[in-house]
Recover the amino acids of this structure.
């Protein structure tokens, strides 16, 4: 009898822990997926290269803040969708890597990041990508635009590329879907029914008509390499390439020759 009571107590505790974890995933998933830092509207960006600060307004009134690095006679233009943490002060500096290679760059903060405002939803975030693409086409031909996505930004880069006809889609450390990432991290939870944000990149990538290149570090501890490989293998577009970086992690691919020796050719 005592053993049965102990077993009941253990099961009760385990079920409560399970329910608590499900609740955390369901109610706090934005806090798990999006890790923004907020900047005051008076913040002055400091970059090594000259740039123009821009603000676009969405149909629902969100104010979307971005930076446009304009190069005279550029080799091309890069529309850059950044990862899930930080703000434009950091990401603007990181994208100067491409500016130094004589590419014009447009990089933006998502809703709730930096100076950008607005209510997040999966569809709102997808819709915002078209605003930025339309802005880019005011200055550059589609044949000059490479859409670049990094980590979380690969979902947005892929989506906007299927809606348009850019020169190329370049993905750094992509995922198959957020659902697959969540399954990998929480294999014991019913994540499919818990997630509002699923970002099913695999569903959209085969509608992309331009060439696609994926960079992924084999030692990536944030988005497992198998995610990028699975996404690559799902692409039916014959013009595709996977560049694997054996020692590469999630935030350091620029430090490896497999990236630096190929990136200009891929752009």
């Amino acid at each position: 009898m005592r053993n049965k009571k102990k077993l009941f107590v253990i099961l009760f505790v385990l079920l409560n822990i399970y329910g608590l974890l499900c609740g955390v995933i369901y109610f706090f998933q934005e806090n798990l997926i999006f890790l923004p830092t907020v900047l005051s509207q008076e913040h002055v960006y400091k970059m090594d290269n000259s740039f123009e600060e821009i603000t676009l307004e969405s149909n629902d009134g969100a104010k979307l803040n971005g930076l446009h690095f304009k190069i005279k006679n550029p080799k091309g233009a890069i529309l850059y969708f950044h990862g899930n943490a930080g703000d434009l002060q950091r990401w603007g500096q990181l994208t100067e890597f491409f500016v130094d290679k004589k590419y014009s760059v447009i990089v933006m903060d998502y809703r709730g990041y930096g100076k950008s405002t607005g209510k997040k939803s999966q569809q709102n975030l997808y819709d915002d990508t078209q605003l930025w693409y339309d802005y880019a086409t005011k200055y550059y031909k589609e044949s000059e635009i490479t859409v670049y996505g990094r980590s979380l930004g690969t979902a947005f880069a892929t989506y906007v590329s299927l809606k348009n006809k850019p020169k190329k889609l370049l993905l750094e450390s992509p995922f198959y879907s957020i659902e697959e990432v969540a399954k990998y991290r929480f294999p014991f939870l019913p994540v499919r029914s818990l997630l509002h944000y699923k970002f099913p990149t695999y569903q959209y990538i085969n509608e992309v008509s331009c060439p696609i290149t994926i960079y992924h570090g084999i030692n990536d501890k944030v988005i497992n390499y198998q995610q990028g490989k699975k996404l690559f293998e799902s692409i039916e577009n014959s013009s595709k390439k996977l560049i694997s970086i054996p020692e590469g992690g999630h935030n350091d691919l620029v430090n490896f020759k497999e990236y630096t020796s190929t990136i200009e050719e891929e752009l």
Notes: The chain has a mean pLDDT of 90. The first strand starts at residue 35 and ends at 36.
